[in-house]
Design a protein that fits this description.
53% helix; two-stranded antiparallel sheet
């Protein structure tokens, strides 16, 4: 059946606007990278252009913002350099891994570490991930004039990003497509041989295997590009696709903010998950209680006050803990099958 003319016209207009916006982002990205390089602050692109490079037509993989990784000790300096060149105030100073600044409609996230690392409640694995990325920028590779992380590091970033979306705002088809084209373009025996033990140490091996199996079964990733993925259950991969279509950001998106409190896969039930994840969140988002254990009983109230202030500014959605508790029942069962941050 032919697409109605008015629908086709709207899609054409939307596509043109997205492509034009993407061109503006790419231009600004080059400028920002040059500003940081001139200030002796090396950086590497996270997601965005590094993912687009694996597509047959990179310019058609639309970016949402500019994500750059810098050394942790240079994050504040990098933000000041950009502010001196037209960017505004930091919007999320308390964020666990990045600072966001805007100029017009363009957002730049200056990362001291990749997204997704905070999802882990295990301090030992969190430290391993931190150590792995702390000097990652030193080994960056220049591809077509742009600074990327190594292929191995890009793989870990993509998996962490998928896990964060899966457990918070919903995993979209675009994020899964990014992984499918990365595996098709980059993954070979040499890369997998180095990546597999790392994913095992980080507790990401089963999650990676099932995500890749979903790409083979549903996105036509050639099986010979990832034969190792076929040992993982197709039934769980099907559940992942079902959740993407129901909750992902290319389907009917549901707000999962706060649901992570109840769906820790290593907890026996939702209440024990709440206690465990809340403690981890307190240590992550209010560092003083990490150094001084006596402050831990006060930490939840500090985070609550911060949330209420952000909520009043419109920076956080309404949090209904009872509703999140109910929604997390199915997800916790699925997460147990995906085994995020479970060392194997």
């Amino acid at each position: 059946m032919a697409i109605p003319e008015e629908v086709a016209l709207r899609w054409e207009q939307d596509s043109f606007q997205h492509i034009m916006g993407n061109e503006q982002l790419l231009y600004e990205q080059e400028r920002v990278i040059q500003l940081l390089d001139d200030a002796n602050i090396p950086c590497a692109i996270l997601k965005g252009s590094s993912s687009a490079a694996c597509y047959p037509q990179p310019s058609l993989r639309i970016m949402g913002d500019i994500d750059l990784l810098v050394k942790p000790e240079q994050q504040i300096e990098a933000v000041k350099v950009l502010q001196a060149n037209g960017y505004g105030d930091v919007l999320d100073e308390a964020h666990h891994c990045h600072m966001t600044i805007h100029k017009g409609g363009i957002a730049v996230e200056v990362h001291r570490e990749p997204n997704g690392m905070f999802m882990n409640a295990d301090a030992e694995i969190a430290q391993k991930l931190h150590d792995y990325f702390v000097d990652a920028v030193d080994g960056r590779q220049i591809v077509d004039g742009l600074p990327f992380l190594s292929d191995e590091q890009q793989a870990v970033v993509l998996i962490l990003h998928k896990l964060e979306h899966f457990m918070t705002s919903g995993l979209g088809l675009r994020q899964l497509c990014d992984w499918a084209v990365f595996v098709a373009e980059k993954m070979d025996d040499r890369l997998w041989t180095g990546l597999q033990p790392l994913l095992s140490q980080f507790g990401l091996l089963t999650f990676t295997g099932i995500m890749t199996r979903a790409c083979v079964d549903y996105l036509r990733l050639p099986e010979d590009k990832a034969p190792w993925a076929m040992q993982y259950p197709g039934e769980t991969a099907a559940k992942v696709i079902e959740q993407i279509l129901n909750e992902g950001n290319f389907g009917k998106k549901t707000e999962k903010y706060g649901e992570r409190l109840f769906n820790d896969p290593n907890s026996s039930n939702r209440l024990s998950s709440f206690v465990k994840v809340l403690g981890s969140a307190c240590r992550e988002h209010w560092p003083p209680c990490e150094k001084h254990a006596a402050l831990m009983p006060v930490a939840p109230f500090v985070l609550l006050g911060r949330y209420l202030a952000q909520r009043q500014k419109g920076e956080r959605p309404k949090l209904d803990l009872k509703k999140k508790y109910q929604q997390a029942g199915y997800d916790q069962k699925l997460y147990k099958e995906l085994k995020p941050f479970v060392v194997e």
